[in-house]
């Protein structure tokens, strides 16, 4: 198996379906990566995540560097052996979490100095340290370290952050290439920044292409700008990136976000939504989200979603899961999370099939009409 090969098998409009071949396995695209923040997809065993159709997981540099520590994970056999997952793992760079979670951050050209949100200890996360942590974890797809600023920032602030991110991208690439055996068997992605500005996005893409990466992420979206603004950016941003490399939209998102982004040429996604929603009583279905806390489910003997192939829908009723959720039982969070991960992975399989068969527009139109149907969904 090659270190990293991306093959496009079919296109439909701007959408593509294909596969990323890596030494640890093949990732079918478009792909959704369940988030395993702290070396676990919360409330699920790795084998059950794989059974849902997931080909790759995401691990988090910031959280794992703080607890249990990247050096400890390395001593214990790397992230794959530590958590019992033998397929590919992508690790984010930690930049987003430093900006959103850490206390008393101080940004400089060197990196970001911060105090841990766990115990107040001081750390410096630089491009070189981020790549080192990801290498210690045994990451298969390493993300470059970048600086994220809100889309509401001034253009001057956005431009400065994008330009620094590009300097950090070069340092990240150099640090990855210095990784010896790890670099010879794994991959690194660059991250496009520039908020919602087409010119800044183009300058970022050009800088990343000049450095050269195995794949490219569209960063800085899904941070509160809304779906319309995000899609407006995706109308141009993916086309600024190489067509023969994977395009990864970070932190997205709702099912309709994913469908719209696939239509605009995105190949990879990650989001905490299916797991977080599962733990708070929200189930995703083809007719929209359900709030299992609602009393109307108390005697409903039907499945969460009659169209869903997951083990949860085949075995347990809405009434039982409603009881578990209302009772605060751990099994409720487990079953809801498993169903939601299956929902997302089944959606990706359906999108891949629709692209391959040249019927994506019809599939997307029908999906949105059913999912967004008036009065069918419930919010948790």
UniProtKB/TrEMBL annotation:
Homodimer. Within each dimer, one monomer is responsible for RNA recognition and catalysis, while the other monomer binds to the replacement base PreQ1. Pathway: tRNA modification; tRNA-queuosine biosynthesis. Coiled coil: none annotated. Catalyzes the base-exchange of a guanine (G) residue with the queuine precursor 7-aminomethyl-7-deazaguanine (PreQ1) at position 34 (anticodon wobble position) in tRNAs with GU(N) anticodons (tRNA-Asp, -Asn, -His and -Tyr). Catalysis occurs through a double-displacement mechanism. The nucleophile active site attacks the C1' of nucleotide 34 to detach the guanine base from the RNA, forming a covalent enzyme-RNA intermediate. The proton acceptor active site deprotonates the incoming PreQ1, allowing a nucleophilic attack on the C1' of the ribose to form the product. Binds 1 zinc ion per subunit. It is an enzyme of class 2 (transferase). Residues 14-370 form the tRNA-guanine(15) transglycosylase-like domain. Signal peptide: none annotated. The active site is at residues 92, 270. PANTHER family: QUEUINE TRNA-RIBOSYLTRANSFERASE. It comes from Sphingomonas abaci. This is Queuine tRNA-ribosyltransferase. The keyword Acetylation does not apply. One of its GO terms (biological process) is tRNA queuosine(34) biosynthetic process. Substrate binds at residues 92-96, 146, 193, 220. InterPro entries: ArchSynthase1/Queuine_TRR, TGT, TGT-like_sf, tRNA_ribo_trans-like. HAMAP family: Q_tRNA_Tgt.
């Amino acid at each position: 198996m090659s270190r990293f090969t991306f093959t496009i098998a079919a296109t439909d409009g701007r959408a593509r379906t294909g596969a990323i071949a890596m030494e640890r396995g093949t990732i079918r695209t478009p792909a959704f990566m369940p988030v395993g923040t702290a070396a676990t997809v919360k409330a699920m065993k790795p084998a059950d995540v794989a059974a849902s159709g997931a080909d790759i997981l995401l691990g988090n540099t910031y959280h794992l560097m703080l607890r249990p520590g990247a050096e400890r994970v390395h001593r214990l056999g790397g992230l794959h052996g530590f958590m019992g997952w033998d397929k590919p793992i992508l690790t984010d760079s930690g930049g987003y979490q430093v900006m959103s979670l850490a206390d008393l951050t101080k940004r400089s050209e060197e990196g970001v100095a911060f105090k841990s949100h766990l115990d107040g200890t001081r750390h410096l996360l630089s491009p070189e340290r981020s790549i080192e942590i990801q290498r210690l974890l045994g990451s298969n797809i390493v993300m470059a370290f970048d600086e994220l600023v809100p889309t509401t920032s001034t253009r001057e602030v956005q431009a400065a952050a994008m330009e620094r991110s590009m300097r950090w991208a070069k340092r990240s690439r150099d640090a990855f290439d210095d990784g010896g055996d790890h670099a010879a068997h794994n991959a690194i992605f660059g991250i496009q920044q520039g908020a919602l500005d087409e010119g800044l996005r183009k300058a970022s893409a050009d800088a990343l292409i000049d450095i050269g990466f195995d794949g490219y992420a569209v960063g800085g979206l899904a941070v509160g700008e809304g779906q319309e603004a995000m899609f407006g950016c995706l109308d141009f941003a993916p086309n600024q990136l190489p067509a023969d490399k994977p395009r990864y939209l970070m932190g997205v998102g709702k099912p309709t976000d994913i469908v719209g982004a696939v239509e605009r040429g995105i190949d990879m996604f990650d989001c905490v939504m299916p797991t977080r929603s599962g733990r708070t009583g929200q189930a995703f279905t083809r007719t929209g989200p359900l709030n299992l806390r609602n009393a109307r489910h108390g005697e409903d003997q039907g499945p969460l979603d009659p169209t869903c192939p997951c083990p949860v829908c085949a075995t347990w009723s809405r009434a039982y899961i409603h009881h578990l959720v209302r009772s605060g039982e751990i099994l409720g969070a487990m079953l809801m999370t498993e169903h939601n991960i299956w929902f997302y992975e089944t959606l990706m399989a359906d999108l891949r099939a629709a692209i391959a068969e040249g019927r994506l527009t019809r599939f997307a139109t029908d999906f949105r009409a059913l999912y967004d149907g008036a009065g069918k969904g419930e919010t948790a």
